[in-house]
Amino acid sequence: MPDALVPFQDPPVFALLCGLIGLAVGSFLNVVIHRLPKMMDHDWRTHCAELRGETLPPEETFSLVKPRSRCPTCGHPISALENVPVLSWLFLRGRCSACRQPISPRYPLIEISSGLFCAAAGFHFAFGWSAAGAMVLIWCLIVLACIDLDTLLLPDSITLPLLWTGLLFNLFGTFTDLPSAVIGAVSGYLSLWVVYWGFKLATGKEGMGHGDFKLLAALGAWLGWQILPLTILLSSLLGALVGVALILSAKRERGVPIPFGPYLAAAGGLALFWGKPLTHAYLGLL
Question: Fewer CB within 10 Å, N or C, the chain?
Fold first, then answer.
């Protein structure tokens, strides 16, 4: 190992480095969460217009890098000093420097979450490919959970690359062996696919979206088929508890769809760090 990398062998040092990287990437995650649904909507409308033989009127288009970030209220461009993770939001007291309109606290919360989870990954997995892969998985789960909360969508542009990336990492047994990863991907998709069709045949309604199948397949590809029962159990329990709490607090009416992606993402995060001991614990109870 090169001498320059030796300090990162120390777990606290490496965890701190991962946390700083997580904070920086967390700022970009906010951009993805905000812009990707807009990009998808524009693509869908463009495709529908083409099928009708029409052309959409000119409008501003977004990518993940252009145009420059700006205040959604007044259009003030966000400078580099105003875009420092967490610190800028605190310095500006949660308001735009130009129009003084509030900036959602979700932005720093996502940055903090990314930093803390990445620091935990660095400490848990130590220096190596496992920590790098865990951070990639964490970033994707954060983005998917937030987009699903906002739009009830889990974009294929994230779930499908996440699935294939998990299989690539496990070519070398990073988190599980390759056969377990392949079986996990297939089983993850089919398990929710069967639930979806069983519910639809019984009630005539769709109980979940196809993106949930793909997200569970991706988690199976990353962590192996062995964690799928735990992931489904934890996500179902979390979803049920939150759903009941929202109904009892009168914040959500019965029959209003509840996104399942955030609970799958949370269960996948728990399985990433403690999948094996949690699986052994519940199997011991059974």
Answer: C
